[in-house]
Design goal:
Transposase_11, transposase activity, mainly alpha, Transposase IS4-like domain-containing protein, DNA binding
Length: about 130
């Protein structure tokens, strides 16, 4: 079952590629044992919205394997792990669980700080279940 790890707010019309750098620097992955959190995950699973050479290059420099399918019109089509990509449904199910909180789904909040606070409350409740 998926759990939320990090939220980064952006404008609704902004592309996923532009928000990647902020999200990537804010993400920390918890170790299974004791010690400091690891800085980077082993794999990053994303949809076609994250298909950009800049993102793939950044992930490879951080020793993270990108599991991102290429768009239809792409000239270079690298291989990707289809079995691991199928695990992406956990992310979709998590988003649906977050949208169960009416205030988050309908975006009642006018200010970004208040909306982020509601997202955090929803994430805490999901972690507690």
């Amino acid at each position: 079952m998926g759990k939320p790890m990090q939220f980064v707010l952006s404008e609704g019309q902004r592309s996923d590629i532009k928000g990647f750098a902020t999200l990537n620097t804010a993400l920390k992955v918890k170790r299974t044992g004791r010690g400091r959190p690891k800085q980077r995950p082993r794999y990053l699973v994303g949809d076609k919205g994250y298909d950009a050479q800049m993102i793939r290059h950044t992930l490879r420099r951080q020793h993270t394997t990108p599991v991102i399918p290429k768009r239809k019109n792409a000239k270079y089509k690298p291989r990707f792990n289809r079995g691991l990509y199928r695990e992406r449904n956990r992310i979709e199910r998590l988003i649906n669980r977050i949208k169960q909180f009416r205030r988050v789904a309908t975006r009642y909040e006018k200010r970004a700080e208040n909306y982020l606070a509601m997202l955090m409350i929803a994430a805490i409740l999901i972690w507690l279940k």
